[in-house]
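Researcher: Let's run the pair from yesterday's discussion. Sequence first, then tokens, for each.
Model: Starting with the first of the pair.
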Amino acid sequence: MFRGIAAYLGLAVGDALGATVEFMTPAEIRHEYGVHQQMIGGGWLKLKAGDITDDTEMSLALGDAILSAGKVEPVSIAEAFSDWMRSKPKDIGNTVRRGIVQFRRTGQTEMPESEHDAGNGACMRSLPLALVTLHQPWTQAQAASRLQAHITHHNPLSDAGTECIMQMVQAAILGEPRTELEWLAHDLIQRYPPFEYRKTRRDNPSGYIVDTLQAVFQALFATDSFETALVEVVNRGGDADTTGAILGMVAGAHYGLESIPERWLQRLNPAIRSRCTEQARALYQLANQGHSP
């Protein structure tokens, strides 16, 4: 359970740290901050220190929908996403907006498959699925992942990347070694070669799921602590709130709660810190009650 909480807090910390330098290049970050490693807010969204973005907000909306329904139910999730969009969030991706608008207009919870929808939006919010399906056979967990993902993102690369991150989080929560996480990344590459991350450094990663996960894998596997991995990935700039959020959830689960620097946890918005902790506990409890997604 504590690794699940660490994954949630890692998600939020990574989101809040990365948001400051989102859309900046590594050179711009160096010029402005040297090494960006303090949770100071700002950025293009002009956040308060410790505030989060759509990555954490959508994860919490997804978790709330699962807990309310007692299972992974696409209409409940789509309604939760719609309510979230109605709240006028600080930021929302175009693919996410399009999927929610379709649901509002038609009631459909699956977008048509599209080669243009290989963004990282489904992956960034996948943590609740990793927790609630922790003890389910992988085929069921995979089906649950696609129910939520396809509300906005229906693309094979998006599915594969999202599912790989879910598997990494689950393996880490269950105490598997780092070599297992590397094996999962290499298995993804075997099936989808564009994800190859060992040849070229991925700086300034875009919202394309391949760019995102290349940066995450490089930072995760080239470092040996939560802090060094997260600082490494957000200083690459680009879609830094999302690379930070995704790396944060995996590294949090892998390194554990005690690995997350106290200075970041203390700066994190207290209401978000509390919601993340409570939701992680509730999803873990639901997973252990044997509810089927």
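Model: Moving on to the second of the pair.
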Amino acid sequence: MNRLVLIDGNAVMHRAYHALPPLTSPEGKPVHIVYGFVSMILKIFQALKPTHIAVAFDRPGPTFREKLFSGYQTQRPKMEDDFISQIPLVHETVAAFHIPIFEMDGFEADDMIGTITDAVVRSKGGKQHSIDQVVIVTGDRDILQLVTDDKALVYMPTKGLSEGRLYGEKDVAERMGVLPKLIIDLKALMGDASDNYPGVAGIGPKTAIRLLTEYGSVEKIYRHIDAIANQNVKAKLVAGKDSALLGKTLATIRTDAPIVFDPEAARINSLATPEVRLVLERFRFPSLIKRLYARDGSDTAVAASMTKKHKANNPQTSQQQQELF
């Protein structure tokens, strides 16, 4: 089976930033996000056995969602300087693995992932559609809307970066209360505190799930608004109609971003490229080098030597890293 793993780069970076202890390069620059990101790539390669890998990142500029709603994500705290400084280092490391990167001004990483996933799910065969299954790696629940059993699954870390769970349609329904295709409708009614849009005031999860189970979508709810017996709920829906429709637009991951995905460019046979070794040596990541080249006997002595040297210089940090991964 040809399996494409799509990594939500920003989601993995944020998880690494909060999950790992501070770690610096020999030049004194923070690199713990890079360490965590590489650890996740190695784990993914071992656990999911992809034939293809690609990574999507957010861009720093405003997106079309911010143009639609000025309050979109405005409550989120400003990125720390030691987070920002590691973004280009993560990009450099991903490129060293020969893994393609997708990002575009005006769109989020989710939209890159949505566009690629949609192209694969709709594929009928041929060079441009040679992938059988997509597995999206993220900690963002919004991505669950893309799940389609057998064709598109989501792998979400559950404990730091070391453990995760694979979600199909049934798993999404158990967690969210609705099938993947209705997640955007659920968010439209409930709102989303993390993205800072309100939804319909007074409509909580239970009511939203009940309405969607009965009517099937936000649009169908409003087409049958007169049939809603609960006058309090009906009044809230009428008052919040514009907010609900806007929320659905904001929640919907785009599948039409103007990007070109070439499966052959994302094909991966081995992660052990000469370029990535140079990067890991530069950052003094001996444990990652050892994991990456564990099957290559010629690298064992070098990796062991580097591990010994690093432990001598950073005994506590090295021990913490081994415990986490």
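Researcher: Give me one sentence on the second I can quote.
Model: The chain has three domains: 3-178+254-266, 180-251, 284-324.
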